[in-house]
Backbone:
């Protein structure tokens, strides 16, 4: 794709190209690996301490990953929605989304998820048979969806976007114009992103708390974050609505020229989050509930860090967009499938390592490798099935 050195005045000129964008493909693949890392380290943290071993460094990893990676997934997912709607009928778009998102979700929640959570069931009730466990999960519950909640929520966002596009194709033009200005002034778009996400997230956090989930069967989503994810998705859709290569995400733009600056700036809210955690544990004594001032301050730092991490990662991949081969490239086509199936491998390797007296770091290294390798091989095998590439 070709970029120009200045943003045009007409936001509807030069719509997004249908060809693959190497920078964003690599960013998605990188985020998939971050998801696997997140699930690999949780048992060995203070927050999710389900293994006898732990290491404080993994708490630092989880604090960082949990604060940005799913929001960024929604942003990247939104980028190509408006161009797709421009070239497809509502019916075709609906069918494509059901095939790409609805079908994998429906299959995975009755296969991958029960297999994954059976490892936890055996830890608590070693005599339970899998058939008994599976039947109870899908008929009585609870029926957790694990990381697959992202898939059904994205499907809802996509279908809602289709309805909004039919009402007004120009609905997201203001966001796109701001993106065009972000070609030379990414800080303006950053402040916009922080302001919008703070408005939707901080009140939700105060109202619902951080641990409440909306749940109905396998359909679940964290209550305090659903509007945050919607904001990232639709802001991403606005950025991608038109003039895609001439705005904020241009490889010739100012954002792509300053990855290290964004990385250093993002350390400030991250350190602030750790400061609040120290205050909660050492000064406030872990009260439940926490004071509103604490939750509001934490929520504000959360959205600043989330936006900063996304800008840092995008800046890095945009800068090296033309850098030839990447270690991430061989995995790009399989990344979605890896995301769908990895949770079963992750929980089972943690189950097998539970009684092994090894350091937490070694367990995580083994767990990560034994999760990634078979997930990748299984996905590659499934994609060889005729027609499977339309889904995976």
Residues:
């Amino acid at each position: 794709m070709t970029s120009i050195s200045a943003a045009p005045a007409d936001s509807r000129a030069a719509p997004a190209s249908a060809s693959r964008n190497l920078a964003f493909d690599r960013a998605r693949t990188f985020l998939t690996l971050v998801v696997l890392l997140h699930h690999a380290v949780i048992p060995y943290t203070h927050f999710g301490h389900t293994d006898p071993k732990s290491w404080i460094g993994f708490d630092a990893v989880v604090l960082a990953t949990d604060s940005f990676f799913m929001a960024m997934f929604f942003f990247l997912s939104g980028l190509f929605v408006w161009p797709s709607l421009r070239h497809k009928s509502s019916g075709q778009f609906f069918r494509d989304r059901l095939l790409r998102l609805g079908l994998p979700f429906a299959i995975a929640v009755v296969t991958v998820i029960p297999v994954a959570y059976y490892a936890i069931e055996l830890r608590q009730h070693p005599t339970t048979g899998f058939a008994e466990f599976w039947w109870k999960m899908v008929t009585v519950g609870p029926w957790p969806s694990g990381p697959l909640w992202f898939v059904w929520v994205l499907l809802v966002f996509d279908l809602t976007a289709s309805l909004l596009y039919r009402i007004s194709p120009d609905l997201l033009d203001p966001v796109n114009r701001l993106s065009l200005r972000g070609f030379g002034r990414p800080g303006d778009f950053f402040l916009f992103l922080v302001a919008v996400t703070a408005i939707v997230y901080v009140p939700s956090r105060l109202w619902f708390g951080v641990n409440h989930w909306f749940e109905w069967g396998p359909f679940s989503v964290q209550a305090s974050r659903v509007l945050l994810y919607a904001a990232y998705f639709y802001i991403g859709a606005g950025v991608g609505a038109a003039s895609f290569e001439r705005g904020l995400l241009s490889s010739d733009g100012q954002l792509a020229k300053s990855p290290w600056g964004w990385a250093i700036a993002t350390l400030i809210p991250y350190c602030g989050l750790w400061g609040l955690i120290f205050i909660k544990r050492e000064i406030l004594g872990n009260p439940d509930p926490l004071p509103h001032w604490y939750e509001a301050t934490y929520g504000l730092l959360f959205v600043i860090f989330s936006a900063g991490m996304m800008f840092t990662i995008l800046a890095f991949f945009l800068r090296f967009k033309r850098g030839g081969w990447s270690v991430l490239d061989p995995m790009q086509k399989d990344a979605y499938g890896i995301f769908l199936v990895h949770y079963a491998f992750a929980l089972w390797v943690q189950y097998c390592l539970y009684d092994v007296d090894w350091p937490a770091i070694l367990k995580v290294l083994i767990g990560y490798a034994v999760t990634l390798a078979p997930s990748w091989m299984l996905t590659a095998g499934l994609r060889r099935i005729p027609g499977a590439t339309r889904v995976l």
